[in-house]
Write a structure and sequence with these properties.
Length: 300
């Protein structure tokens, strides 16, 4: 790993480091770890990298096993006017940025964005209101004005992510020209959302207090989402509700498992998508076949 020269060996005292050295550091370990070396925040290091033209891994990079991580992005020559050497740390780098007065809603959104980045970079356990306040340059009291406690913030973040996944899914369902086309579009959209948001959601939903705090409302939301599907299977294919419920539960489980694999980066997206779609479409066609048989038996 690259070594950076420094003044007295203490974090935050100011260290001189080259672009090449910083590039090596940010590809060797998560930004939160690199930032701690210099007494900075992960967001601060990220902004420095962007200013110096240093490519850095995506947030999901560290969630993957070493052999499944994508190749490093190459370091290009420094942008015009950018030095090859920078001093990191130093007391002034820790100073809060001056902030304009913002609405409570804007501040909440900013805290949630920072929490999402911190959870992906360092893990959910590292997300605290104190750290987030420092990250975005506000007081801890201001952070508590937005969220009473850490769990409240994490619950709000999880709800936001789940709502966005569902919003995206619902927005494309109507594009399907028929039932099967709608199923394909809905499934593909969900899998792409799993790729974009799944790593964060997995981290959050594995946290006991988050899982327990959302248990009842997630069960209710699932029931509400499932009801139109069950009604459609019953009305269109004369399928018994117990059969419709079992079929829906099985196909939902297939999609959730595929989404989990994609979020974890364990398998190529295209392979998981292809297999998931094949299973879902086979199930949808099986439902039609069962429905036709039920209708024929009823009309006989």
């Amino acid at each position: 790993m690259a070594n950076a020269d420094h003044d007295d060996g203490q974090p935050g005292s100011g260290r001189t480091i080259t672009r090449d050295q910083l590039y090596e550091l940010v590809w060797a370990e998560p930004l939160a770890n690199v930032a701690a070396r210099f007494g900075l925040s992960a967001n601060g290091i990220a902004k420095i990298c962007d200013r110096l033209g240093i490519p850095r891994p995506e947030r999901s990079y560290w969630m993957r096993a070493g052999d499944t991580r994508p190749a490093r992005l190459p370091l290009s020559p420094a942008p015009a006017g950018v030095d090859e050497v920078v001093v990191l740390g130093a007391g002034r780098a820790m100073a809060r940025r001056p902030r304009s007065r913002r609405s409570r809603a804007d501040r909440r959104s900013e805290l949630l964005d920072a929490a999402a980045a911190m959870a992906l970079e360092a893990g959910v356990a590292e997300v605290t209101l104190k750290r987030l306040a420092r990250e975005i340059g506000i007081s801890e009291a201001q952070a508590h004005n937005c969220f009473p406690g850490r769990t409240d913030l994490l619950l709000a973040l999880t709800r936001r992510e789940l709502a966005e996944v569902e919003r995206r899914r619902q927005s494309v369902i109507a594009r399907g020209e028929d039932r099967l086309a709608s199923i394909v579009i809905s499934t593909v959209t969900y899998l792409h959302q799993a790729k974009a948001r799944g790593a964060l959601l997995q981290l959050l939903l594995r946290t006991p207090e988050i899982r327990e705090g959302l248990r009842a409302e997630r069960a209710e939301a699932a029931a509400v989402a499932r009801e139109p599907i069950l009604r459609s299977l019953s009305d269109r294919f004369a399928m018994e509700r117990s059969v419709a419920n079992a079929s829906t539960a099985a196909l939902t489980a297939v999609c959730l498992r595929a989404g989990g694999l994609i979020a974890a980066g364990r398998d190529p997206f295209a392979d998981v998508e292809r297999i998931c779609l094949a299973l879902v479409m086979a199930g949808a066609r099986s439902n039609e076949s069962l429905g036709n048989e039920s209708r024929a038996a009823r009309d006989a």
